[in-house]
Amino acid sequence: MAFALLDQIRQIFDGDPGVRKVADDPVLSAELLMLFRMILADGSVSESEMVAFRRICKDAFGIQESSIDSVIEYLNEFGYETNGSQAIALFRDLDIERRKQLAQHMADIAKADSQLAESEVRLLRRTLDLLDISPVDVVKPEE
């Protein structure tokens, strides 16, 4: 009980730990913005896309579930300052595995609602071209 209260007090002064993590890492911020662009690419936000986004935040980046809404709010407030080309530029110098991870996460979001819109395909294709990644590298075998 006392630790929970101390944690809440710390959060008031330090801010949300998930938001701090995203704000302190430009590459992570850029990736999350690209994932959001994929969510919005077909013109609607589906629950399954948001579930996929939340899963990626938690599993791939260690962002706690309790922080994800605050992270989304942060991205909405500050993400307008970064366009897609600027976000992708941060990835060009990263190793191929990290670039493949971004592409895979974008594909996961696009496939989440079981409908691949042409706008999602275009965004993914353009991202793959900019990152110099083959579409074959994004396809993962079914488990």
What are the main properties of this structure?
mainly alpha; 73% helix; 143 residues
β content, as a range?
Answer: under 5%
Integer-rounded radius of gyration:
16 Å
User: Fraction of residues in helices?
Assistant: over 70%
Q: Outline the biggest β-sheet.
A: none
SSE string: HHHHHHHHH
- Gross morphology is globular
Mean pLDDT rating: 84
Strand segment tally: 0
* Weakly predicted, low-confidence segments: none
Distance between the termini: 41 Å
- Counting DSSP H or I runs of 4 or more residues, the number of helices is 9
Return the structural class. Answer: mainly alpha
Domain Co-chaperone DjlA N-terminal: 33-138
Organism: Rhizobium loti
Protein name: Putative tellurite resistance protein B-like protein
InterPro entries: DjlA_N, TerB-like
